[in-house]
Specification:
Layout: H1 3-24, H2 33-37, H3 43-74, H4 86-100, H5 108-134, H6 140-164, H7 167-177, H8 186-213, H9 217-222, H10 227-249, H11 255-266, H12 272-297, H13 301-322
Helix pairs in contact: 1-12, 3-8, 3-10, 3-11, 3-12, 4-5, 4-6, 4-7, 4-10, 5-10, 8-10, 11-12
């Protein structure tokens, strides 16, 4: 590891701890250290804030990692977690659940659990479809086009459901789509962490083949890289990481595109192991900052990420056009 990379990691670590402390102190009520570490009347509020920080850290690890994998595999800096349509299909599954479950007698404490399960089921279903059709596409670009078509189709179905939805169901879906950063319980965080750990384990086994794949398919195969297995690993890891976060937080847009972009600007983009670690560190910092802004302004998290992400992507497009 170079000295520059160690300094970057140290800076990110300090910044993450500082951002987490600020996030814990952000809210309608002032909380003392006793509320977080002892037993006080406000300990329940402190637990909600701790859960908020934990889920931001998990999202900050998973979403940029998913975008990093997509961009490195497709060699496209504008690729993101939703490029294969996983986020769109997960959102469609949630829309079906919200719009058609209002007549079912489901206890309130199970509502969020079923909503999350429907999103995960949708993402995993598309993952199985992608795995089955990926072998038929020799060119990577066809898989991207397939994902775009799936996203467009899912978006059209969601729009149709919204058009005929009742007022309360429509409101529930819109609120979910804004991205919730303070409604995830500790039990849900455990489930989210387990899914993300599974996705990270698959990601770990794809980094080395990605390094060879960056030098060309023929060169990579000469070193024992299996292109089909690499493609399968990328799909599985990206699906688990993006679908799990979408399930519990709603669609969080553009983070998976802009964080890998900034990581390539601040450190050597050919060092994929270091790039992965930087993506996780910077992702956690960005999500904590966005969460704090959302709490202070009461603006939905998804809106904040879009307001920040869209100008960055426009600048990236202009730079590519000049190049």
């Amino acid at each position: 590891m170079s000295k520059k990379f160690k300094i970057l990691c140290l800076f990110l670590l300090i910044a993450i701890f500082a951002a987490a402390a600020v996030n814990a102190d952000t809210g309608f009520l002032y909380l003392s250290p006793e509320d977080f570490f002892g037993d006080s009347p406000r300990s329940q509020i402190a637990e909600i804030r701790v859960n908020r920080i934990l889920v931001m850290l998990l999202a900050g690890v998973s979403i940029p990692t998913s975008g990093f994998l997509m961009q490195e595999y497709f060699r496209n800096p504008l690729a993101g977690p939703d490029i294969l349509g996983i986020t769109s299909v997960a959102s469609l599954s949630v829309a079906f659940y919200i719009f058609f479950s209002h007549d079912l007698l489901i206890p309130d404490f199970l509502q969020n659990s079923f909503l999350s399960l429907s999103s995960i089921a949708g993402g995993l279903l598309l993952m199985l479809v992608l795995l089955s059709v990926s072998g038929k596409f020799q060119d990577k670009s066809y898989l991207v086009i397939f994902g775009f078509l799936v996203s467009a189709f899912a978006g059209a179905i969601v729009s149709l459901l919204q058009f005929y939805a009742e007022n309360q169901s429509l409101k529930n879906y819109v609120l979910w789509s804004f991205g919730a950063n303070n409604m995830v319980t500790r039990d849900q965080i455990y489930v989210l962490a387990a899914l993300i750990i599974g996705g990270m384990a698959v990601c770990f086994h794809t980094i080395k083949p990605l390094i060879g794949n960056a030098l060309g398919t023929a060169y990579a195969q000469s070193f024992g890289v299996n292109p089909g297995r690499l493609k399968m690993g990328i799909i599985i890891a990206s699906s688990l990481l993006s679908a799990s976060v979408t399930a519990f937080m709603g669609p969080v847009l553009f983070i998976g595109i802009i964080v890998p972009h900034f990581c390539r600007l601040i450190y050597n983009p050919s060092r994929l192991w270091q790039q992965w670690m930087l993506n996780m560190g910077l992702g956690m910092l960005v999500m904590l900052i966005f969460s704090t802004i959302a709490e202070k302004t009461q603006i939905p998290l998804n809106v904040i990420s879009s307001v920040f992400g869209i100008p960055v992507i426009l600048v990236m497009l202009l730079k590519q056009n000049k190049a």
